[in-house]
Structure prediction request, 235 residues.
Amino acid sequence: MPSLRIRWVAALPFALAIPVFVALGLWQLDRADQKRLLAEELEQRAALPPEMLGAVLVDAEAMRWRRVEVAGTFEPARQILIDHRRQAGRTGFHVITPLRIAGSQTRVLVNRGWIPADSAGQPTDAPVPSGELRVSGEAYLPSAPAIVLGDGDTAAWGTRWPYLTVGLFAGGVDYPVQPIVILQDPSDPHGFERAWTREPPKEGMHLGYAIQWFAFAVIALALSLRLGLTRKVRA
Prediction:
């Protein structure tokens, strides 16, 4: 029988890659499990009774997707519009109005919904109600887009912003701001078009990545065996 000759030099890179690919696959499985648990936690939070917001700043992560209620007065002078928001195929703006929480100097930002742009691309009217009122909705944590042009100069933006984070708003005012934005409930008055969609953490993407890494490990194993084990040809 022909003997076997080990070609370690050719097989070694593929053999070394196997544990790396397996480790990456296991990491993605762990990430998928984390996303699943987070999605379950957020669903449980959404089912809790509404949290009444006051002057004390809350923990933003602990409040994510919690139902909240707050009493206070809207402040039209600091209302901003978020550009290029789409609703049912139309372009418009999200209306963000700060609300001064009753009995305090603390504000909370309220996304009151969507308004359309007119034929010239300008926002339609977004009136602000006066007097103390109660707002209910879900706590949301807006983040900057993945690619940001410029340095976030809100003074230069005026009342039309390309995106919103609480940090950007809070950096331009001299009073405390709750670290969440309230997505105003569609049943609340004094708002505009509101069809909020919650995007829960998805485990499927990580499961797909895990399968890919494990497939790479199998391929690397097959190549290492193919290159490492060859038959010596008879003389």
About this structure: Strands lie at 4-6, 51-52, 67-74, 80-87, 90-101, 107-116, 132-140, 160-161, 177-184, 229-231. The helical segments are 8-46, 60-63, 154-157, 166-170, 204-228. Residues 66-184 form one domain. Residues 50 and 67 are 5 Å apart (CA to CA).
